[in-house]
Design goal:
The termini are far apart. Helices cover 21% and strands 29% of the residues. It contains 5 helices and 13 strands. It is α+β, with helices and mostly antiparallel strands. The strands form 4 sheets. It has a 4-stranded antiparallel β-sheet, with helices on one face.
Length: 219
């Protein structure tokens, strides 16, 4: 029986002489992300692979050129990608309290034609997936955000976003783990520490984890 078209199509792109990018798709999709995480995990078990990092729907692979070639590893990746994936083990579930008093809440309310109460109800409704961790230590890209809350990024990013700020942009949401520049819309704040440099691992969220927000009282 032929494999589904979405599983057959794996594109391999070279990244210099010792790395490649395996692209499984282009959608913000939990199933594609699950496949990417599973493929990265399988590749990390190979002797010829130094590192494999999953993205939204892709895997960046750093390999040992003394043990394999781009062509050989690319062929192996395509074989791995068409295997029926194991039933994924659900990631850890994090319940995150949020005070929904972000500085952008009035503007978001006007742009979406929704009341702050409706925005909170929509934002706290899903169990979000951690697609990947990056940008700065501890930052997790969470989604998919309900389409009713979809907004483009701010035209002018802020130079300073306070740590703990809960934000939305596109079909994603996230929490700024430290004070950094940012262009997402700030709708709330959380006291949960996301980057713990003295812990192992230092980031609270990991790819594949699940996040559930709930409204907390004003402090």
């Amino acid at each position: 029986m032929p494999q589904p078209r979405s599983i057959q199509r794996v594109r391999i792109h070279p990244l210099g002489d010792t790395a490649l990018l395996a692209v499984l798709g282009s959608r913000l999709d939990t199933a594609l992300n699950t496949r990417a995480i599973g493929l990265a995990s399988a590749l990390r078990k190979r002797r010829d692979v130094r590192q494999a990092v999953a993205g939204y729907a892709s895997v960046t692979v750093h390999f040992d050129p003394d043990q394999t070639t781009l062509e050989s590893l690319g062929a192996a990746i395509k074989r791995l990608a068409v295997r029926r994936p194991k039933e994924p083990i659900p990631g850890r579930l994090h319940r995150i309290p949020v005070v929904y008093d972000g500085v952008d809440m009035p503007e978001v309310s006007d742009s979406l034609n929704l009341s702050p109460r409706e925005i909170v109800a929509l934002h706290t409704r899903p169990i979000y997936r951690v697609f990947l961790v990056g940008f700065v230590p501890g930052w997790a890209y969470l989604g998919p955000l309900p389409e009713e809350l979809e907004l483009p990024r701010r035209r002018v990013p802020r130079t300073h976003v306070p740590a703990g700020s809960v934000a939305i942009a596109g079909r994603q949401t996230g929490i700024y783990p430290m004070q950094v520049p940012g262009g997402w819309h700030l709708i709330g704040r959380s006291s949960v520490k996301l980057f713990l440099p003295n812990s192992d691992p230092p980031c609270l969220f990991r790819a594949g984890d699940r996040v559930k927000f709930f409204a907390a009282a004003l402090d």
